[in-house]
Amino acid sequence: MDLGSLWDGTGAAIVLGGTLAATVLGSGWRELTAAAISIANLFTPRFNFRKVRAEIAGCVEDMRHDGILRGQTCRTSDSEIARVTAALVHSRSLKALLEEHEHCRAERVQQREAAMRPIWLATELAPVFGMAGTLFALTQMRMDDASTVQLVSSVAMAILTTLYGLLLANLVLSPLARLIERRQEEEEEERQRLIDWLAGQLAESCPPPRADPLLERVA
What is the residue-wise DSSP string for 131-196? Predict the structure, then answer.
């Protein structure tokens, strides 16, 4: 099998270049930036429940022993966990911790949705530009003066560009999108697991919510 026969530079340029250009034109800079960040995050260490729990274990133990009122923001390598513990210490309530966690989760969901739009758009466009390359190759065929070699080359390019579009969509872009989604879903589960542990550890250390004097008088 001659693998070199499967390569056509012009066809690849049409499919790759066209898909990239159309994706950029069809997406906003915010979405493109989010997509780039999500792809880059695939090459960074995953959120590690055990690692972050070990980082904040001492701080949590101090709050359990001394109470939330004397607690301090936990030092950790994860900025979100630092945010939720800061909210806990500032407001002296688990409700503030859970609300901040939900706020961070909503930000991640919004970021994930923005990141996925350009990738799925490119997945849809790749076969389209594969077909565009096929049509381009067919327009280069001139039956009146074309040699056999030229005809074979044009037919090969027409077939290969369709193949490139299908491969780009189904073997590159679609698996990439699924990989990002799985990675982010796993992170959500690990973060929720840590928040549940943190809330369980500090449930008895938080002061009870203050009663509303006005409601007491009405009652």
Answer: HHHHHHHHHT--TTT--HHHHHHHHHHHHHHHHHHHHIIIIIIHHHHHHHHHHHHHHHHHHHHHHH
